[in-house]
Amino acid sequence: MTKPLIKFIKYTFFYLTILTLAACAQEAEPPTTTSSIGEIPAAELNSRIENSNAPLIIDVRSSEEFAAGHLPGALNIAHNEFVDDPAASIALLPTAKDAEMVVHCVSGKRARIAMEVITAAGYTNVNHLSGDYSGWEAAGYPVGTE
């Protein structure tokens, strides 16, 4: 198979999986709340981390990028894992569908893909880190490598 064909099949499967997850979530029980997808500024997230009141931070960059530096307490689930095996990625998240989460990558593209999968699975309190990791690092906020 050619690379474009493989890519087409992969992304078609990805979007069909999202639609299936959304349909299953709707069949299971009607939503009682609406999705809240917003932005959280880096300064606010940093303050919440410092006060031990941080939401679940999901870093969707590659494991190599994550190892080079990441937000304190972040969980690394690479965006391609959301694409290749959405069910396994969702299984790593809290069971409470209203759990607060912040998703980021370097520039936002991969984060948006992961957020589509997360919200399609019924999560209702998902936010994007304004400026992503590059903005966080440029602002001089702490990064970990552990």
Question: Would you write up a description of this structure?
Answer:
Helix content is 49%, strand content 14%. With 146 residues, it is α/β, with parallel strands linked by helices. Strands 1-5-4-2-3 form a five-stranded parallel β-sheet. Residues 26-35 have low confidence and may be disordered.
Proportion of β residues?
5-15%
Our count of helices gives: 7
- Give the oligomeric state: single chain
- CATH superfamily placement: Rhodanese-like domain
Radius of gyration, CA atoms, in whole angstroms? 16 Å
Gap between N and C termini:
40 Å
Task: Tag the structure with descriptive keywords.
single chain, 146 residues, Oxidized Rhodanese, domain 1, five-stranded parallel sheet, 14% strand
